[in-house]
């Protein structure tokens, strides 16, 4: 108990409470102060409960706290009688009740905040069944349930995103980089469009470029198909090699073995496979199915807290202890009779376990052997592709490795020399470009001076003469030059190159230092930028959290207003019903018969009498109809027969008339013939 109080005091002295309690001051708190402290802790978990208990009745305070503790799934210790004592102690502010509640709340503050936040949206409002008869209310209730399910899914996705490790700063950097690239591409496309519009037949050229792009894409797809077919061919060759290797092994096995050994080997394989099929695999499959069933059952249940898990562990331990006790009782009861059978059962179970272990070892060895065979085939195929003659072993491989190391050092040395030469070449090339630019500027100045003096072209002619004379002198020198002069020139050039190297070495060194400093500064800039982005993301997340909180409070305010209006409407309906009941009672009790006739009871009794009289008349009419039903049906059948008889007579009469008319026509035709 002292550890519990010490924990509560430590938590209350920290953020966000800052109560500055010690054990003595906390223990000396009165019941009202304890209740206010509990209300403050509940208000930290759910801001709706941050109220002053002096402004509400004790029953309201207890009801509010009990409802929130029920939402947070707090389970007070004890039975039903203890629960009633717990409620009474919560109303009176008893230390024995409030201290455990504070300890439990302060232990799981973050988890309970999340649970209270979810309860605000997931605790379903119970609508009475008589109100659900209305279509509008039923539709709104259905929409409410659909929104609740949508909120559950969104909350799960949000939690998954929080735990996935994605940084908002990195995502924003990627988005900004992609936006910049998109802007650059759009600008480049616009520039290219403007540049192409000035060219003649640009539409035809664009069409040709489009066809070229399509052909390139087709070429890439064909190359991809070719690569896929190559891969398929490579896999087929590997399968062929494996089949050939298996065939060789089978040939060797057939050559080196006898039919009896082959039959024995086949029997062993058949026994092993039948054991796997009949015993091991069905047992593993059954265990997997049971584990999957239990996992699905656990996943279907609601989320459990640590306290629920602790309760389940305690129950499991109790059930295991009971099982062990029952097993011990059974063993003590049947031990003298089944001692031999128990020994045989133990031996059989040991043999079965050994059999399972050996089967698993054999299966693992077979899988390992097949994997090593596949690796060996891959390595051999790679060696054949590289056109290697054979695999080196022992001293030959060491000699080959030493040779590769020496070649590697020689290669690194030459690469450094090439890097120095390329750097020097770049510097000399830049110097040459600068000198050419200066020469062009001097030439332009000289040409301007010649134009001003009226002797344009003088420098060009002089250069041509000097060039011709130089060429002539060079030709003369070349004719008279000897090998010693060429060697002296080479020495001079080498000395000049060495001097240039010496003069440029400090500049290159300084340039390297500046480059290193530039890299350090860019790295520092990137780090500062990352810090800035993280700080901005944190502020943004805080802002969004505050906005969500404000939005939640506004929604809560709207919900409370709607509840208030709904309660007012219900109150008005009840008042109207009460008024109608009073008027009905007044009219029913009134001595005036006119007033009594206006009462609903009198009206309904009159209607009931009218309906009873009507029912009596209808029953009498039904009786008359039922009695006259047989004769009427007989008379109706007689009339139907009479109607059929008359219809038959009519048809016979019509046929007779038609026959007499035809006979008269025939007689008249015969007389005419006789006359003719």
Automatic annotation (TrEMBL):
Q: Which residues form a coiled coil?
A: 137-246, 309-382, 504-584
Instruction: Fetch the PANTHER family from UniProt.
Output: INTRAFLAGELLAR TRANSPORT PROTEIN 81 HOMOLOG (PTHR15614)
- Subcellular localization: Cytoplasm, Cytoskeleton, Cilium basal body
What keywords tag this UniProt record? Acetylation, Cell projection, Cilium, Cilium biogenesis/degradation, Coiled coil, Cytoplasm, Cytoskeleton, Differentiation, Phosphoprotein, Spermatogenesis
| One Pfam family linked to the record | IFT81_CH
Q: GO CC annotation: what is one? A: ciliary basal body
Q: Which gene encodes it?
A: Ift81
Its Gene Ontology molecular function terms?
tubulin binding
InterPro entries noted in UniProt: IFT81 (IPR029600), IFT81_CH (IPR041146), IFT81_N_sf (IPR043016)
Q: Where is it chiefly localized? A: cytoplasm
IFT81 calponin homology domain location: 3-126
Q: Which organism does this record belong to?
A: Nyctibius grandis
- The answer on whether this UniProt entry bears the keyword Phosphoprotein reads yes
Give an example GO biological process: cilium assembly
Protein name (record): Intraflagellar transport protein 81 homolog
Query: To which protein family does this belong?
Result: Belongs to the IFT81 family.
Entry function? Component of the intraflagellar transport (IFT) complex B: together with IFT74, forms a tubulin-binding module that specifically mediates transport of tubulin within the cilium. Binds tubulin via its CH (calponin-homology)-like region. Required for ciliogenesis. Required for proper regulation of SHH signaling. Plays an important role during spermatogenesis by modulating the assembly and elongation of the sperm flagella.
């Amino acid at each position: 108990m002292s550890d519990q109080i010490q924990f509560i005091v430590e938590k209350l002295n920290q953020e966000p409470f800052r109560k500055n309690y010690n054990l003595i001051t906390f223990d000396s708190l009165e019941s009202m102060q304890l209740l206010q402290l509990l209300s403050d802790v509940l208000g930290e978990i759910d801001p709706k409960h941050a109220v002053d208990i002096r402004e509400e009745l004790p029953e309201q305070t207890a009801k509010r706290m009990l409802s929130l503790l029920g939402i947070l799934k707090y389970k007070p210790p004890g039975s039903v009688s203890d629960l009633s004592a717990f409620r009474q102690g919560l109303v009176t502010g008893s230390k024995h009740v409030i201290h455990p509640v504070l300890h439990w709340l302060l232990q799981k503050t973050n988890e309970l905040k999340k649970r209270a936040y979810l309860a605000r949206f997931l605790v379903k409002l119970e609508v009475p069944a008589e109100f659900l008869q209305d279509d509008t209310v039923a539709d709104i209730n259905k929409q409410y349930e659909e929104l609740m399910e949508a909120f559950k899914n969104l909350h799960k996705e949000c939690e998954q995103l929080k735990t996935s490790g994605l940084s908002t700063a990195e995502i924003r950097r990627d988005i900004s980089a992609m936006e910049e690239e998109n802007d650059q591409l759009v600008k480049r496309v616009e520039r290219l469009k403007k540049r192409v519009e000035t060219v003649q037949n640009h539409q035809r050229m664009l069409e040709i470029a489009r066809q070229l792009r399509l052909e390139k894409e087709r070429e890439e797809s064909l190359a991809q198909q070719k690569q896929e077919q190559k891969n398929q061919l490579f896999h087929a060759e590997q399968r062929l090699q494996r089949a050939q290797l298996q065939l060789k092994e089978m040939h060797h096995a057939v050559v080196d073995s006898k039919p009896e050994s082959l039959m024995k080997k086949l029997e062993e394989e058949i026994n092993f496979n039948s054991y796997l099929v009949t015993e091991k695999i069905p047992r593993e499959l059954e265990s997997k199915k049971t584990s999957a069933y239990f996992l699905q059952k656990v996943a279907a249940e609601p989320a459990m807290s640590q306290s629920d898990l602790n309760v389940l562990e305690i129950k499991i331990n109790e059930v295991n202890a009971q099982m062990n006790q029952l097993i011990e009782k059974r063993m003590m009861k049947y031990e003298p009779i089944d001692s031999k059978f128990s020994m045989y059962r133990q031996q059989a179970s040991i043999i079965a376990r050994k059999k399972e272990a050996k089967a698993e070892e054999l299966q693992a060895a077979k899988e390992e052997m097949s994997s090593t065979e596949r690796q060996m085939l891959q390595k051999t195929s790679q060696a054949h592709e590289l056109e290697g003659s054979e695999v080196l072993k022992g001293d030959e491989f060491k000699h080959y490795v030493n040779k590769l190391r020496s070649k590697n050092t020689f290669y690194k040395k030459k690469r450094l020399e090439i890097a120095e030469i390329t750097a020097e070449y770049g510097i000399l090339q830049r110097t040459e470009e600068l000198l050419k630019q200066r020469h062009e500027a001097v030439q332009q100045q000289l040409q301007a001076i010649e134009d001003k003096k009226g002797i344009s072209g003088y420098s060009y002619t002089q250069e041509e003469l000097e060039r011709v004379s130089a060429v002539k002198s060079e030709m003369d020198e070349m004719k008279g030059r000897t090998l010693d002069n060429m060697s002296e020139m080479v020495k001079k050039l080498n000395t000049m190159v060495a001097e240039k190297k010496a003069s440029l070495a400090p500049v290159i060194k300084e340039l390297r230092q500046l480059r290193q400093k530039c890299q350090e500064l860019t790295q520092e800039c990137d780090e500062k930028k990352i810090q800035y982005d993280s700080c901005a993301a944190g502020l943004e997340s805080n802002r969004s959290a505050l906005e969500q909180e404000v939005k939640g409070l506004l929604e809560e305010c709207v919900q409370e207003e709607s509840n208030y209006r709904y309660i007012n409407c219900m109150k008005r309906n009840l008042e109207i019903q009460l008024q109608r009941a009073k008027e009905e009672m007044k009219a029913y009790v009134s001595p005036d018969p006119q007033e009594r006739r206006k009462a609903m009871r009198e009206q309904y009794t009159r209607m009931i009498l009218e309906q009873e009289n009507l029912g009596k008349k209808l029953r009498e009419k039904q009786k008359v109809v039922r009695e006259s039903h047989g004769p009427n049906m007989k008379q109706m059948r007689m009339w139907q027969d009479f109607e059929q008889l008359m219809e038959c007579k009519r048809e016979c009469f019509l046929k007779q008339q038609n026959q007499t008319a035809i006979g008269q026509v025939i007689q008249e035709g015969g007389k005419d013939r006789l006359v003719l």
